[in-house]
Amino acid sequence: MKMYTCKQMIYRLSDYMEKELPFHKRLIFRLHLWMCHNCRKYLKQFKKSVELTGKIPKENPPKALIELLEKTFKK
Ligand SMILES: [Zn+2]
């Protein structure tokens, strides 16, 4: 089973939230979430922003967000 990187997780997050991912991809997604503290933290922030704006961003994450994430995930 192929694992996702954190960046792949982020690009699939809106699909995951809208339940558009096929079952096996949701499993991979959840497995990564289970193991990755950073992505859990990111998902939490993502859900919060969905609550605030009332919608799931459909486009790829904005550039500013990517930069923020790269900083967050930097080892
Ligand atoms: Zn991750």
Task: Give a verbal description of the structure.
The protein has about 80 residues and is mainly alpha-helical. The chain has helices at about 5-15, 25-35, 35-55, 65-75. Helix 2 crosses helix 3. It is globular, with a radius of gyration of 12 Å. It starts with 5 loop residues before the first helix and ends with a helix.
Brief digest:
With 75 residues, this protein is mainly alpha-helical. 71% of the residues lie in helices and 0% in strands.
How is the secondary structure organized here?
Elements lengths: L5 H12 L5 H13 L1 H17 L9 H11 L2
Bound molecules: zinc ion.
Descriptive terms for the model:
75 residues; mainly alpha; 4 helices; binds zinc ion
